[in-house]
Amino acid sequence: MNFTNPQIQTEDLPNIEDVVLKPISKSYLKIITLNRLAFYSLILGAVFGLKYLIKEDGFQDNFWLVFIGVIVICIANFIISILAFKKRKYAVRGYDVIYAKGLIIHSIITVPISRIQHVEESRSWLARHLGLSTLKIFTAGEAGSDLSIKGLQHLEAKGINDFISAKVNGNN
Amino acid sequence: MEITDFSQPIRQSTKGIIVIFAFNLVTFIKKFFVLFIAFGVSIFRNKSIGNITPTMVVLALIAVLITILIIAILKYLNFKFHIHNDDFHLATGIINKDNTIIPKSKIQNVYIKQNFLQQIINVVSVKIETAGDKKSEIEISALDKPTALLLKKKLFNRATSTSGEPEPKDALKEPEVFFKVTPKRLFLEGLSQNHFKSFLLIFTFSFGLYSEFKDFLKELELEKHVEGMVELDEATILRLIITNVIIVVGVVLISFLFSIVKTFIINFNLEVVEHQKTVEINKGLFNKVSLSLTPSRIQNLVITTNRIKQYFGLHTLSVKQAMVNVKQQKNFNIVALEKEQLNYLVNKLISNYNENQGELAKPKPYYMRISALEMLVFGSVINGLSLAIFGIEMLWINTVFIPLAALYIYFAYKKAYYKISENFVTIGSGVIDTTTNILEIHKIQGVKLKQTIFQKPRDIASLVISTASKSVTIPYISKQEALTIYNFLLYKVESQDRDWM
User: Where exactly are the transmembrane stretches of this chain (chain A) (predicted)?
Assistant: First the structure.
């Protein structure tokens, strides 16, 4: 019987911290900015709408206070999303895909390639213009273990897509 | 139906028409129930609306019934299935023809179910499930029992033998009933359940009823009566207190009863049968279910018990499979198990599991701080609400709330632990219940490390481990520890070439 059972030194295992995570494309910042701005203008529009709908004195007198409050929240949110952009990083190893994101709640997700069910590359209208695409990686798990890496260079995404597809097919 | 070979396309038993008819009728009534009531009442009250008379309504109803019957017959005629090579084929559809093919190896579950109607006409329905979403489920609604059992056996036999060594016939070892629940244990199980849920359910139900009939009650001029009664003398106050106490006791009793009846209906005659490789569960009063558990299809095991249940030796084992919908998930619970039976079963379902394997470790005390914070938020909401609704006197609820919150925090921390061994991850949690989550490392689908900006300076992180059926969290451990586990789990998954299903 050819069976060995070597002891595993946990410190010798491939370490997730040694992986150099790549930042996503800088152009994606534009998409984030545009999306955010569109969102904020919607909200501000809604606030103005309220001004015409609610005729109560209490609201009318304090309208500018409310307005400024909303703007401050929007600005804070915008700054956070810009800062969080730097946290969006990814890496592909021989056996898994890693994606890190989030400023307030930072998370690093790793999905082993052998567990991937299918890969999808999707491109919105805006992303096509900037030469970007989103790589969606689906596992059999509940939504918790699915990955969606946004803002990859189109070629890069295609390359990863091909690599994973080849690996997944090779396994079966 | 005498043919017991599934190589040729066959229909289900003719009784299937009745089942399909009944099923369609029920869905139809459910959809148009409100319309029926509104329409029917107004017609019978006014004798006619426009030119519609009650006779016409009855005729229309009969027409609808006949249509449903015809649809049922057509559905029955166009429903054929057979087994060819290693695939299960099913052809359905009256106008749009559907042809479904399921490879045996992808079948996750075969249930045999019997609802009330099916029990009367003595047929069973067979449900075939894959790990896909809800749409890929197949249900054959009427087969006689021997045929159903044979079909199940045929579907399973090939499916299991492809993944393992050529297996000796199942018949070699007589399947034996491993566990059969007694009414007494079921009663205890129902009694010792977490009654908060039943209580909430009944409370919302009665509250809903009350708000529905509020106007009606007003019409009865109840308020005047009440006002008459609330001329404060001591006797009426006493009476008021007594009524309140009676109401509370009544609700508590009802929720107890509710839990017990529910437990009985769902788990009536619960039986665990042990086969060579699989474990079969049979249970149910109105809806009889029989399902087989194949070890390779199991993603997580969850064991629940609580203080009282522990005293009676009652444990619940729930088996989680990939992508099973919530309603079905409940069928995978085995209640009222003794400790030894539980251990035996766990070992049968995931081999070589040993409770004492691996080192037991606990989350950082930071956990308590987070729970305390949660409780603080919850408490301030409660205080705010009671202040707003009942005024300043209501602050006394804090005397009840604060000790409860403290107990909550204490128990949540005390019961939290995790254990990582060579092949398994075990995570304990719970406050009122004691929950133990077991999963096999090679079934992990993804690992996630989570750290909030506030945890960063303290070097604390949480680890989320996802399998195909659910995600479990190891909360608030030191980041170094989390990374070590992270690396270890990934190494385990990626270095072994084992399938998750």
Answer: 37-54, 66-85
